[in-house]
User: Fold these one by one.
Assistant:
Number 1:
Amino acid sequence: MPYARITGTGGFLPQRIVSNDDLAADLATRGVETSDAWIVERTGIRQRHIAEPGTKTSDLATRAARAALESAGVTAEAIDLIIVATSTPDFIFPSTACLVQANLGVGGAAAFDVQAVCSGFVYALATADAFIRAGRAHHALVIGAEVFSGILDWNDRRTCVLFGDGAGAVVLSASDEPGILAVRLNADGTQHHILCAAGNVVGGQVTGDPFLRMDGQAVFKLAVNSLTRSAREVCADAGIPVSSIDWMVPHQANIRILNFISRKLALPEEKLIVTLDRHANTSAASVPLALDVAWRDGRIRPGQTVLLQGVGGGFTWGSILVKI
Ligand code: ACO
């Protein structure tokens, strides 16, 4: 049975950077009060990239995909599986993965979306790993991409300051050497209400509430507990101690969540890859974007062990242990 290895990474962020001060000034015109000091102290976020109106998730996903293909030295024609993790697809259907495939100018490969909100990339990577290990794919393009700015209620300061837009991607290729060492995916659907965008389109009309809503404190507690447990479980599955992890690339939601987890796991904070200060929370894009930053700046190197972790709406969470 072949193994699956990450052979390249890519990322793409919209050009427009909105600092906390810019955002506070903009929200003030709506009568919504916030400040750089509040956002930095409670979340660690300093800025976010926001897509221009009309930008589609498939646009960002395609840019990240091209960068990952180049990094891996794999042509688009060689890709036989495309999975896009997103909660902000271009359309109800077809899938964003099919639109990315068309943008890449190739046809034939299987292409579909995965919906697990901020855990989406980890779910998608686990799916691609299973395809490759079963011999059903040789080179998979796995993408997390979001235009979350489109589902935010800009009058709700408890949520709109937390998110940004972007896309990250990896190429996962069949290999004789182990790459993905162990996978844990979990969900607790009874907690679906603590983080949701509970709207839909029926008969051409929006029904329900299409904006993101969140019980921040409930999400905070569940995120810390589920990711701590999941990290221990995935390391036990791989037969390695948590202390042997070289880098942790967690979902980038809140620096306080990440600091709690690293303390509980006794992993030094220097082993955390943190991009939320610059990117904010880009949902399914956050893990591959952070991975791409650390891959390109040379922190993540061949032979190292990396823990990827996602957590988000559903409630969903998951961990993947990777040998680079
Ligand atoms: N600016 C200024 N004041 C604010 C803001 C803001 N942007 N947002 C909330 N406040 C106020 C509230 O109105 C409240 O004021 P009040 O006491 O007068 O009512 C006060 O700050 C405290 O509000 P809380 O919601 O209790 O603040 P908390 O300390 O819980 O921080 C936060 C909120 C940052 C959302 C926190 O709960 C959190 O980090 N939760 C984790 C959830 C998360 O990161 N979600 C991201 C998406 S989910 C995911 O990706 C897994």
Note: The CA atoms of residues 97 and 112 lie 5 Å apart.
Number 2:
Amino acid sequence: MTYTESVQAQLEALRKKEHVRILSLETSCDETAASIVEDGRTIVSNVVFSQIDLHALYGGVVPEIASRAHVEACDRVVDQALKEAGMTLQDVDALAVTYGPGLVGALLTGVSCMKGLAYAANKPLVPVNHIEGHVSANYLTHPDLKPPFVCLVVSGGHSHLVRVTDYGCYELLGQTTDDAAGEAFDKAARVLTLPYPGGPRIDKLAEEGDPHYMQLPHPHTPGRYDYSFSGMKTAFLNAANKLEMKGEPLPKADMAASFRYAVVSALVEKAVLAATETGAPALAMAGGVSANSLLRRMMQEACDKAGIPLYMPRLNLCTDNAAMIASAAYYRLMKGELAPLTLNAMPALRLV
Ligand code: KG4
Ligand code: ZN
């Protein structure tokens, strides 16, 4: 029997199994992560190796350095995830890997590693969209959450409002017309000469500042649920340049607080509008920016006011991890969506 025939034959038995355990690997950007999750909902082990220290020196992710570091870390994080779960490769039912979107070289190391493991262990391999992984972090945190719901996806590369109609099924409600929210935070942090990664630094500094120190433009967007952050970013940069030309020190905490307030207000306003107007039974948040403390507070307040249940991932599941990839993989596996051994990295893979 070929590998393909063998894994297809395993599918029927897997669907009837009481518990299905998936071992996942995530290497799309600057985190090498592996995890074992049971039934898409219960984390058995979750290992994240962050490369932040390697890239901090350059003020951002250096793709070549990221790929190299993934190659070195892949085997180690997979071994560690198995060890922490007290399992061997034979104890897991299927494997999963992020195949896009992300840095092509970084993705390729993970895809190659898991194709090799899947073939060697004769286990099904599930290809996972990284952004779907972020959405699925909510299933790990909230066992009661089921589609349909509206989800605000805010990461380093994405700012989307989607309707999750079923597991793995999405309709686009709105998106950014320029920068992603995380990207905007990272760029503003650079203006304030804060170290990479900027988003969490701005968030922390903002706690000590005045959010009304400066007013940033609230842009007009083509679609009702679209976002735009480039105008805010330019106004922010101009204000910093003006102060510098006058030889005045930047009031960094006040500026960070004002920028955070402007971005978060826009995110909250459109997300709650979309959830209300589409009659969504719940609103969820996903992606690195959903770790932002003001976003979590303001979204909770707005949802309480609008009477919409709000779901957000636990803090350590907001940023990149492999548990969310295994959760997404579970529902894809149950639908019979397996990767061929020719699976390739897709750096520009879309969710919708
Ligand atoms: O989802 P993620 O870990 O990676 C991508 O898939 O892009 O998101 C990373 C982004 C970065 O832009 C980072 O600055 C931002 O999320 N981020 C935050 C916070 N934590 C991470 N932005 C604002 N506040 C935070 N607390
Ligand atoms: Zn991510």
Note: The chain is about 45% helix and 20% strand.
Number 3:
Amino acid sequence: MKKYVFGTPIPTGAVVAEAEQCRAEDIPYFSVSDGNVLNFKMDNDTAVYGLGPNVRGINKRGWIYEAFNTDEVLHVEDRRRLYGSHTYLLIDGAVKFGVFIDTAGFASFDIGYTKSDDLTVTVGDGNFTAYIFEADTLTGLVKELRKLTGSSYVPPLWAFGFNQSRWGYKNEGDIRSVLENYRRMDVPIDMITMDIDYMDHYKDFTVDEEKFPKFPEFVSEMDKEHIHLVPIIDAGIKAEEGDPVFEECMEKGYYCKKADKTPFYLAVWPGKCVFPDFMNDDAARWFGDQYKFLTDMGIRGFWNDMNEPSIFYSFDRLKMVMDKIGDYKDKDLDVSAFWEMQALLSKISQREEYTKDFHHTVDGKLISNEKLHNIFGFKMSKAAAEGLERLVPNERTLIFSRSTFVGLHRYAGMWYGDNRSWWEHLKLNVRQAAEANMSGFIYSGADIGGFGSNATEDLAMRWLAFGIFSPLFRNHTALGTRDQEFYRFEKLDDFRNLVRLRYALLPFIYSEVMKTACNDDMYFKPLSFVYEDDKRAKEVEDELIVGDSILIAPVCEQNRTGRYVYLPEKMRLYRMRSQTDYDTQVFEKGDHYIECALNEVLIFVRPGHVLPITDARSVSSSYDVDFDSLTPLKFDENERVEYIQYFDGGTTREMNFEKFTRKIEF
Ligand code: MIG
């Protein structure tokens, strides 16, 4: 592993290991121009991986991506940037190597977009560190990247249970009713998420007393049911006199500032807000300490949102727009005036220029957010994770973030943001799951059923059939969309069987995630990462290897009764309707059309491997799951196989492969 320093980069905190420093001009593989442009010539067979969850394929070749964290509500193919920046690439061609571009500012990755064989990385103002690493295999490259940036965060066991969420649960009654409905349906559940409505006027670290009159009692009542409430925390602090969090933030000078050192006010859900300056260590520590308000009430899980950061408008911009609109009054309006006005009004939110307007204080100097932009969410969620470690030192806690950067995987999980209830986005979820794992975000997932737009029953069920493998297993939807809790639909038995199947798989999923985290490996792998010499496998992006044992092939299209599956080796299919109701058959290597009804899941067990399952027919949460009596689903029934099971009780912060694994012979 070698590092090449260009200019004077601002430290990001992504890297934890030492690398040998070499002269920038000696960087291998790339030719450098203008001090900030790196060019690599790709041969025809080169595939390029990396960049974290994004649009388009797992093989990123053929598009241009940008690192500039953005609250992007529409994940469509013409986008170049989403919520996070994972600024590394793994090159898989005649040469195999990885490059991590360590910069907190803008970078673009033109991967055969402008010219099909040119890979061109352009890094903002030319101040960055490039790390080059090599290995014989793709998983080897992943391990190198992890060595450089640290090992993955893991949440407590209960965070692997089912999580029901929606933007719009208003009060205690709404949450109770979610639980009652799932209990009535006999579906196990571990978590109910609390979106922004739980707060008093969207003020972080408050709970609305009208909606939750006895919140600590409510938390412990839920706790008795083994339900964890998971409140959201937003990046902006409401600017309201009398609010102790705001007042302390102002008194101590922990806020982001305009160039003239006055507070930078902006608008998000609470209305007028300030951003804590997460780049300032004291401010970050102070912010992490605020979680105490909720941990004292028994809360052990959080999700951090709006931390790209998302800005609805800045007050300067809004004023400018209103003034301009005022100018049109009493004038003869023509078509160009109409378009101008429309552009003024429709482009107020998430403007890139806002990042120039506000500043962080680093070593006593003001630096604009533009230069530090991509680590804002990282620093927020790191502050939260470190706060939780101080507040709850003897227990793992749950924390996942929307905005991410390389290195945040040491502290938190992530979700992939505001997808839609689209079949296309179910497909995208499959690819993003592999992409997140590459970066080390093992505990991650998409909103099952889709966030925006209206879910149909068949989409919810197909999405669930994939979601049961996702470490973060959360059904979530936006305000105003059609209800998509599984009890809203008709085929209750099928939904129940699928969720129960997740709990039957829980010992396996937990064990594979923990082993993966310990070994700096990926839990979800594209086929190309396992069958590297198989040309055909390289092109399959709608099947995944889960852990070590199985291949899954989710059905991601509407009105299908099956799908084509490519098997890179002979495997045994378990076509499962529930943990006891399945049929099984061996398939040879190659392409097969495999039937898969709406209520079925396709699981292929690899030769020499085993999928251990537990009896989850009567569990009501992860708390009841039996991790000891496991039944093997084998490739070959007559063959003896070993399974290495990781189990540690699911709460200890200690990660220790030797101590917490045991060999089971089946
Ligand atoms: O502007 O808190 O991605 O999961 O439900 C939207 C409301 C803010 C965006 C998150 C989404 C959450 C929503 N939030």
Note: The first helix runs from residue 138 to 149.
